[in-house]
Amino acid sequence: MRPHFLGAARSRPAVPVHRQLISVLLAAAVALLGLVALSAAASPAAQAADPAPVRNLAPPSIYDDPDAPDDGPTVGQLALAHPGVWSPTPDSVTLTWYRSGSSEPIGTGAVIVVPVEALGQTLTVKATAAKAGYAPTTVASEPSAAVLPGTPANYAKPAIFGTPETGSTVVVWEGAWSVEATSYTYRWFQEGTAAPIGTGKELVVPAAADGKKLTVEVTLKADHWKDGVATSDPVTAHAPGTGPVRNVAKPAISEHPTVGALAVAHPGAWDPQADSVDVEWFRSGSANPIGTGLTIVVPAAALGETLTVRATAHKEGRADAVVTSAPSDVVGDGTLQNVEEPAIFGSPVVGNKVEAWPGSWFPAPDTTTYRWFVEGTASPVGIGKTLTVPAAAAGKKLTVEVTATKAAYDDAVATSAPVTVTAQGANPVQNTVAPSIEGTLKVGETVTADTGTWNPSDAARTVAWYRSGSPDPIHTGPSLVVPADAEGEMLAIAVKATKAGNADGYAVSAPQGPVLAAGASPALENLVPPAITPNPKVGQLVGAHPGVWSAEPDSVTLTWSITGEATSFATGNYVVVPPAAAGKTLTVEAVATKAGHTSGQATSEPSDVVAKGTLQPAVAPKVYGTPMPGATVVAYDGVWPAGPDSFSYRWLVDGSPLAGATTKELVVPAGTTGKQLSVEVTAKKAGYADAALESAKVVVEAAGTTAVQNVAPPKVLVNPASGLPKVGDLVGANVGVWNPWPADSSGFVVQWFRSGSAQPIGTGVFLVVPPEAAGQQLSVKVTAKRTGYLDGSALSAPVTVLTSAQSPACGVASTALTSATVAQAGATAALVAAEAKVSRLKAKKKAAKQLDMRTKVAQLKVKLRKARSAVATARAELGTADANLAAAQAKHTANCT
């Protein structure tokens, strides 16, 4: 039995641990050497004369443990023997060890631990070889070298006890050793000094040790042994009243915890005495605490696991100290308690049906099973909740045995008080429809008995009224004014039917209730509280089961709160966990309503601790701009669906951070040509873990090797009223968008072209359309120039120049047709994308459902609803685009044909 609470902090550890280790080493050595039990060879032919001895070819020999070589056998260490070489190969070789000072053996086998009695003496080993059909032979080894003194083994290091405050006295515990000490010597050391600062068992901590580590070296001295030396773990000295609280004895847990029972913790011992100690309980299968304080009721989830407590000691002016206990015994099954014994309802008459009431149990069992017994028989006469009384029970006592079961608890059995069975007469009155109680089961109300249906139907009937918990009737007669002592109990009636010439018949109603208090309405009682799905996380859906109620509610409203906060944050079966819940737990309150009943309320147990959300980008960060020394590049944050509160930046060259480069923009530094530039964007949002993502790397280019980049192409600008230009019209050029932008307007070269000719028909940002362009395509080419960059060029989309036969309306119609065509193509693509998303989500939902991933299924249902709504919107937009395109085509035909 281990100590109930605090172990003897200063006692020696048990030596058997060392002995067990030696046993393991012995077994391992024997297995590796394979020297004692050698495999048998074929037996020689049987000899008619005396059997020949097994011949020794090489005598046994002694050698040291190869893992701990020494100058000879050493006290406390292993000595090993080789069995020698024999002919023929023996069936077995027995090795017996001796010391030179005695004829008594000191051990057998291939390996021994050298005893202290052999110190200074020599060892020999005698090998006796045996083989079937041969005479055994015994040969001794040469004596070993003289046995040397051994070094004591230190099982537990010395330790410093007391508060290591300057001016205070601390004392050393010498530790635990493999041998009994004759005496000890001590040397105290202070961090940073080579000479000891004390040589006694106690030390007054000097002022110079403030803030430094103290250790003590303990030397054990014992007769026939070398000195053993061990050093304590360091402790830090400090000024009085300033050091941390030190744990002297760990917290501990009461023995043999069981589910549903109270487990008790001792908070441990502290130096100096703590002002207060906070205790948290944990089970081995979860990182989340299962309770706080010195006691908890062990939950079912801990069955088969161990418990630990984490104690945090507080003392004013000192740093807190945290220590965790050793694991408890494995948590065993709980015990179901029978609060009120089972009972038998009904008239125990042969042929009648009686019913078992299971009694009251704590906690409430998951299931109850029944076995009926008749006095004098070992086998049950029935196994259900009800029993038709058999003829063999007449005149005997009848009992019912109830077995209650619950997950994580041992099964429990309780037996009812016996009732005596009455024999049934001939031709009994038969009950064909069971009796029942009519009316409101409420104190002070009058309820009546429906005596059921009988054969023959004119049988006279008498009624006895019963309440649960009492074997005696509380009333007789066809009606009952419900008494006050029936509040909260179940009611039943027993009906006796009589008719001349027939045996009496008996029937009992099913129990009904429980009885309400006077003036009360039936209440919806919560049988199983609501429960929250496990492992909630900020930004994700979490769901709740509404619980189980005494009657099916018309509705259950679920209100979500962060545990400990007065205000709720959402209602419904599923909610998205808010950022404020990170690191806390959730609770859900269920309010159930039903017509004619008072509403019921129940609150869930706190959820698992809410994990911080995960920020995930939909589009990764990117470096915008031309990466060239002296040029400015900009960090694009990416797209983060959760909407971070802020971003921070870190620019990297070849994967290493640039000193001071932590802003959104960066002037690319000199000397980086040919290196890889990237930016690490860190998204931050309350309730979420920071998420850092590095952009794709871009190569820093040398000046003059990169062209000015066109971001948006040039455009031909025409009079909006005419739609398309005609000969003689003034048209202009929009130069587009460039990166980097030319220093000024002189950085653009603008040239005009018509189809059918490679020569420009004009330059500059304006052009009067010449006659040769009539009926042809007109476009503008822009060349952008900037110092340090190659020229960049881009060509506009062409526009048609009207002929003299075409009206201005044709130009407007052509422009409108182009726009309508582009819009219709975009709407078609949007519908295809939306329908594809629905298909993907349906496939994911099907897979999650097959894996019983309920939380994931709920999340996907929400996404599917949104995706289907997007499909409907895309279809409507495509219909509008189709109509607009048809109208534009008709207008173009009318004006341009």
From TrEMBL:
Signal peptide (UniProt feature, chain positions): 1-48
Superkingdom as given in the UniProt entry: Bacteria
Entry coiled-coil feature ranges: 831-877
This protein's UniProt keywords: Coiled coil, Signal
Chain intervals for the UniProt region annotation (Disordered): 49-75
Name this polypeptide is given: Ig-like domain-containing protein
Organism field: Nocardioides kongjuensis
Taxon lineage: Bacteria, Bacillati, Actinomycetota, Actinomycetes, Propionibacteriales
